[in-house]
Structure formats: C-alpha cells, structure tokens
Amino acid sequence: MSSAYPAKRIPQYMILIGGGFVLLALVMAVEHFVFGVPLYNRNTGQPLSDIAIVIFLAAGGAIGTLLALIGRAALRAASAQPHENADANGS
Questions:
Q1: Residue 64: burial class (beta carbons within 10 Å; 0-12, 13-18, 19+)
Q2: 81-89: long-range contacts at Cβ-Cβ below 8 A with a sequence spacing of 24 or more?
Q3: Burial class (CB in 10 A: 0-12, 13-18, 19+), 25
Q4: CA-CA distance, 75 to 9, in Å (whole number)?
Q5: Phi and psi, residue 43, nearest 5°
Q6: Residue 4: per-residue pLDDT
Q7: Residue predicted with more confidence, 82 or 57
Q8: Nearest 5 degrees, angle CA 18-CA 76-CA 72?
Q9: Mean pLDDT of the region 65-81
Q10: pLDDT in tens, 17-64
C-alpha cells in the first residue's frame, strides 16, 4: 500500500479494519459455539447467554461490514477522481 495515492490510503485502512472486525466476530463465534469457550460479563462475572452473544457478535460483524463497505465506496470515489499531481499530458 505504500505506492498508493494518498487519498486511497484511508479507504484501504477502513477496509482492512472492517475486515478485522468481521474476522474477530467469526473467530469469537467459532470459539464459543464450536469449542464451547464461555464469554463472561465483565461487570458481573456471569457467563453471557447465547442470545446476548449472538447479538454482540452480529453487531461487531455488522460494524465491520459497514466500515468495509464505506471504505470500498470511498476507494471507488477516489479512483474516479483525477490525480492532483498528474502533468498536462494526462499521465
């Protein structure tokens, strides 16, 4: 990503971070529902119910997906714009 046009770096990082959120939500879902690792409420110390875990993981995945989609839209918009440092020949 080091050779990317500067206006494209932020959307690329948004896509990367959004993908990280989705991946984290998937890993936590597999960890809990497949391997049986309980998730605890930090305040009470009690294990979370399955519905609370599903809501928590769905929210994390949705945030990540939304962030990645916004980054993709911004990247497409930045690609449509001409470069600032292009010379008069259009290269």
A1: buried
A2: 81/7, 83/5
A3: buried
A4: 8
A5: -80, -40
A6: 58
A7: 57
A8: 10
A9: 90
A10: 999 999 999 999 999 999 999 999 999 999 999 999 999 999 999 999
16 token code pair: 């990367």
Residue 29 tokens read as: 């879902």
pLDDT at 85 over 80: no
CA pair distance 85, 91, nearest whole angstrom: 9
The pTM is what? 0.76
Q: Measure the CA angle with vertex 40, ends 38 and 46; round to 5°.
A: 110
Nearest to 11 by CA among 59, 82, 64, 68: 68
Confirm if 18 and 66 have CB atoms less than 8 A apart. Answer: yes
Give bridge partners of residue 40 from the DSSP assignment.
Answer: 47
